[in-house]
Design goal:
Mean pLDDT: 92
Low-confidence stretches: 213-223
Shape: globular
Distance between the termini: 38 Å
CATH topology: Rossmann fold
Radius of gyration: 16 Å
Number of helices: 6
CATH class: Alpha Beta
Oligomer: single chain
Length: 223
């Protein structure tokens, strides 16, 4: 049995599991389209379609597929939406957003991860704008955004990001210390936001701000 066949079988099992857990077809189609094995370290290739997070170096992880699917569903991305992702990491969530037809800006504080994500994303046909910088500040140069997704645990809802939403836009962010609830924030007017919090708990790496750990460089954008 070939390695490719085993990966494809694992992928189909994962998709069936996500469907049973309530993930909608549009999100499943995007996940089916993106080769997760391209975003994991070679030594973990055989685990690419396990429903678990995996280490990618620099103390970071590629998120559990269910978590990616759940956040993507809450984000409710439509083709043509302008989406800001905070925390590029491996680039896997970035690829899912691109597969849904979004125009994506993605910020990562670790330059090596951003460069690796760019190589993989470009190799599978996606060209989001990748930025090395402080995600806590968002990317006001390209605001307003229709959607903003944060892929690290924030200590509180980051209102400086929420204010970069267009009216009607949605922010999805995990909030909490040891484990997190998922928050969906919708901007209903210039000064009003509706907030939804999930009952489910998740676990993310912490949302580190420049100057609070290693300093992030001045934001650099590019394709």
């Amino acid at each position: 049995m070939s390695h490719r066949f085993i990966l494809e079988e694992s992928k189909q099992e994962l998709l069936a599991s996500l469907e049973r857990r309530g993930i909608e077809q549009r999100v499943l189609n995007a996940i089916a389209q993106v080769p997760r094995e391209r975003f994991v370290p070679p030594a973990l290739l055989h685990r690419a379609y396990e429903d678990t997070s995996l280490p990618i170096g620099h103390g970071q992880t590629i998120s559990q597929p269910y978590t990616v699917a759940y956040m993507t569903q809450l984000l409710n991305v439509e083709p043509g939406h302008r989406v800001l992702e905070v925390g590029t990491g491996s680039g896997y969530q970035t690829a899912i957003l691109c597969a849904l037809g979004a125009t994506v800006w993605s910020i990562e504080r670790i330059g090596e991860l951003s460069q690796q994500a760019r190589r993989v994303l470009n190799s599978i046909g996606y060209s989001p704008t990748l930025i090395v910088g402080d995600g806590w500040e968002g990317y006001p140069q390209a605001a307003p955004f229709d959607r903003i997704i944060v892929t690290a645990a924030a200590p509180e809802i980051p209102m400086q990001l929420a204010r970069q939403l267009a009216v009607g836009g949605i922010l999805v962010v995990p909030v909490g210390q040891n484990d997190q609830h998922m928050y969906q924030l919708r901007r209903v007017s210039e000064n009003e936001f509706d907030v939804f919090s999930s009952a489910q708990r998740f676990r993310f790496v912490p949302f580190i701000r420049a100057g609070h750990d290693e300093a992030a460089s001045t934001p650099r954008a590019g394709n």
